[in-house]
């Protein structure tokens, strides 16, 4: 039995196999509509989510399975003090696979330790978000036809953004990757990401504060929102929330084949006018999330294609 807790739980080869399966699903989703018949997914979401929770549910339903679970800690026995370990022991008797989002870093890993069914980390605090990373990788792969030899710009909240941390760790395993890290001083990438992912893999990176200066060199621009829920005080959030806004004028500085990704939800960091630019890939990115999660569920349950 395998879990997906960290984006590096899958090797580069295994990741490519999963992305290839997701690509096949995207090309012909009807062919997979009964693969998970009589299987159940438990969605254990201790904090709010729209895209991640619903895309997991859509993925399982698209595979012919069913879904049970809760969408907040308040609607679970966690509100009574039940531990993650006890919850997953109980859920293991109800479902075949579980997806967990939790505000505390390491909670899904602890759940996996006590679980008798595969556990998928659907986001733990500001730490990891491996299924979003797989979604990002699929979107880049479908746009560019490769996952190597690119300059990736990451912009906004690079300190608390778990999607950023996971994506850096994953892409650092590919040849010829260069990162441009664009953020205010207060929201820089944490040192542990640099020491654990970039430095050991000899990955070239540069830290900048100007989005305009970075635009011409980017093959991918990954925008993020400044997350109110990660700040300890409202004053810091208000001061930093509008630091970077992607507009048509900034897009005019970019390559014609650059792709703009965003894990969503956006607030105002991407102007609505950018949505009509063919380089805007964030809504197809959200759709890709369903295909990736379908492929992941099949892989962890050991289910084969017809």
Notes on the structure:
By secondary structure, this protein is an alpha/beta fold. It has 11 helices and 9 strands. It has helices spanning 12-27, 51-62, 84-91, 107-114, 130-144, 162-171, 191-198, 211-214, 234-240, 248-251, 282-301, and strands at 40-45, 66-70, 97-102, 119-124, 150-155, 177-182, 204-208, 220-223, 259-261. The strands form 2 sheets. It has a 5-stranded parallel β-sheet with strand order 7-6-5-8-9. The chain has a 4-stranded parallel β-sheet with strand order 2-1-3-4, sandwiched between helices. Strand 5 (150-155), helix 6 and strand 6 form a beta-alpha-beta unit. Helix 1 packs across helix 5 (130-144), helix 3 (84-91) crosses helix 4 and helix 5 packs across helix 6 (162-171). The longest helix has 20 residues, at 282-301. It is globular and about 55 Å long. It starts with 11 loop residues before the first helix and ends in a 5-residue tail after the last helix. 43% of the residues are buried.
In short:
37% of the residues lie in helices and 15% in strands.
List keywords for this structure.
4-stranded parallel β-sheet; alpha/beta; 306 residues; 11 helices; 5-stranded parallel β-sheet
